[in-house]
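Hi, here's the filled form for the chain we discussed.

Project: internal
Contact: R.S.
Residues: 363
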Amino acid sequence: MIRYLAYLSIGFISFQFLNVLLNLLFRQRIGKTVSPSDEMVSVLIPARDEAHNIGFLLDDLSKIRGTNLEIIIFDDQSTDDTCAVVERHASSDPRIQLIRSESTLPEGWLGKNHACYQLAKQAKGSYYLFIDADVRIEGNIISDALAYLKKHQLGLLSIFPVQILKSRGEKITVPMMNYILLTLLPLIFVRVSPFPSHSAANGQFMFFDALTYRKTQPHKHLKSSHVEDIAIARYFKKQRIKIACTTHEERIQCRMYQSYGEALSGFSKNIIMFFGNKRLLALLFALFTALGFLPVLMALPTIFPLYLVVLLVILLSYSYISKQNMGTNLLLFPAQILFLFQVMIMGMMNKKRHTWKGRNIYS
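And the returned structure, exactly as it came back:
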């Protein structure tokens, strides 16, 4: 029995190694364009209690020149000074518009999906860029991402930002999401494979062809999805719409959470979706990641050093791709595994109870 588990562990880590190697060798990069397109891009920002973040993003957007932009913010019943911050920036940049939510959330809708749908109804651009209020951008990343989208004739381009990690809690929690992503799926498959299972997206940066968006109405179609980014990616693939997902573009950065507790609450609401909403698959991933070395050590001790070398290469490779500190990830890997178990358990047990910014995300 232990020998059988050892072979399964070797197969599992080999699968992870192959995926991270493919992600390393076939990294998709957003190049720099010489002449930006003059087509309008609608930058659409859903915001709920984002007074401490949104000003920085609007500063970044206001610096962009040479790209035809409109910038629309939907204030989703914020209880802080989000509107005041937006209005202050709008007074000095006529491209910035503020829309306020005038009613309670309609039945059957989740907050972010409804906000994005309302934003799209107001947008006039040929392309829609949905971007979270806590994201920071630099340079001509919008025009460069647009060029990539057009080059590959995509209906959707999603980019994973480089994650800003300051506290010890962030360094334990956030890297595990990159670890799961990069060891489960070669991201090149998102663009070249027709299978919906080969889908990935990050709601922090979702760039749509507007015509495709208007035809499919993804936020309306998936209005009750609490992990709308992955759901939209799979929906588009089922509709034979080309999508792409690239990772860790340095000109896009985000500090998702500021503490261990925030990350635990945030990730637990969508962790199972990483595994196609299959709880058993999620649990097996966690078990083999944490304990896979034991049967190898017990039944195949001569192979164990090679197992450790492969694990080391995986950790170094995913850290490099993610632009994260390799030494920190190696040092904190045991704590990261404990977090993985904790967030898995919360994700499985607290179904229908997750809240975000004062709302139950399932209500």
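Let me know if anything looks off before we file it.
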